[in-house]
Amino acid sequence: MLAAASLLRQVRGHQEQTGFRLAEITAKRARLDRAREDKRCVRAELEGGAATTGPDLAGDARITQPTRDAFEEVAGRLRAARGWIDRGREDPLAAAQELLAAEDGLDRVDMLAPRDRELHAQAAKALERAREAVEEASSWSSLHGVIVPGQPGINELSAADRLLREGRYEESRLAAGAARETADAAMEEIRAEVSRRRIVDLRSSSGSSSSSDWPSSDSGSGPDTSSSSSGDSSGSGSSGWSGSDSGSGSSSWSGSDSGSGESHW
What is the value of pTM for the model shown? Predict the structure, then answer.
């Protein structure tokens, strides 16, 4: 009887321990289920964000390759998290790590994409200004006949255009700045040469006009002074400054005595 009672007490002890153990297992399973559900909600939210961001990036040529690579990493993390969660006996820590990495990666992509667009706009604006400067230098050179070796800034401009298409926006902006500086320097040289030529032309035309103002030294250019001071041998006494009537001998600049033939100034 005593032995049977002892055995009963042992059985009750084991039953209690088993009950405690079962309760712990049930509680743990409930926590796992809640954690799994929470992770599924987080995963669904992240996948929704990725589903919106993915096509937006794919259709935008301004997005750089590093940004696209960052998004691909996010997609990989989400696939790994889905694999852990859908197994049913997942490692909660592994799933949580994948989801955390995916969330951080998606935040990074959301920061990089607008930055790519802004840098692209800056580089494109710098490229357009550089192109205008290069074309202006070339047109001035042709218009004024100033010989400039090559086309100033064209090499840097080509490099800036190539870098822009490759998504290397900062390098493109710097190359465009170099092209503009080269073209502007050429423009200064062209303007200086045009100004120099204008000064030479003005001096040349001024010298020509001054020499043409001097009177000619031809012998027939002035009036015959001898005729103004003497009468002719026929006794008419007419002056070179006046017309005379037949035999009157009077000058238009003077009154005449009858038959005198003298002119008075």
Answer: 0.60
